[in-house]
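Summary for the lay section of the report: proteins are chains of building blocks that fold into shapes. Here we show the chain for Dehydrogenase/reductase SDR family member 12 and then a coded description of the shape we predicted for it.
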Amino acid sequence: MSKYRNIVWFLKAMQEYTRGGYETASKHFVVKDLSADLGGRSFMITGANSGIGKATAMAIAKKGGTVHMVCRNKERAESAREDIVKESGNNNVHVHILDLSESRKVWEFTEDFKSKHSSLNVLINNAGSMVNIREVNFEGFEKNFAINTLGVYILTKGLIPLLEKSSEPRVITVSSGGMLVQKLRIIDLQTEKRPFDSTMVYAQNKRQQVVMTEEWAQAYPKIHFSVMHPGWADTPAVAKAIPDFYERLRSRLRSPEQGADTVIWLAISPAAARMPSGKFFQDRKMVPVHLPLAWTRYSREKARALMVRLEALAKRAQPSAGRSQLNCPIVDISGGPQDCIKKAA
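The coded shape description reads as follows.
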């Protein structure tokens, strides 16, 4: 079945995820959807110093929005900020330094941000990682999982109280169409028991992002949640993480601006806000989260089990948990979804 998924997915990807796929889809875009004045609205964008994140920050700054760039590297972040301010003429662009792989610091960042800011209208979870060799962070979490799944979980959960009291709040998570080849996994989240394949680990993390978005939409109806696939874009992250893929398909990759288009649409368009919360988007359209006949569907119970597990792991990294909690071993969860709920509780 995994071979079937991979073949079907690749055929779909070559048609839809490339620059040509964007050009075909964009013929049906409504230009006025992006003609918003964003003065007075604030946007947080992770991974905003390059690629899709920078293109998104630039577009929002040009429309008058206040931009909070959350980046790992201070020098690159400041350089990107200078570019954005110079081109947009908007000085309301702020840099925050945070490494999403450091789970405890993500908690600390959310608390600090809430203490200094009275509102946040839109959170864009754009930063992602594909570490090709299995590594763990200070808390013992595998780094891809720590950044792509747990980091997104902690940052979003930590900022939800601020989002809920802000006007027309939205949360957009930049996922990947690669998640279509993965069934949801709620055990061995750290990839300790199976061979480590960074591409599949990344795809699994992106499937987990879809599930998180679906569950948050149910739990927090005041906020509009969405998750999206930007297509295959020509970004520094892609060139570094998967160089062979990048070289083979470079001429067919989308520009960062094309990859960012649906992120921006979801973040600012009134049309996007009218779409159901918790859905998956590609090129400004709501699209399925499963390939036909691919056997990747999951029950609500299994989705809930993932959220319970993530909450337990997030609390383990929380500063208030104390150092003894941070140094305790990660307890794996085995069995079915109901077992997961019981053990994680």
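Put simply, here is one thing we learned. The longest strand covers residues 66-71.
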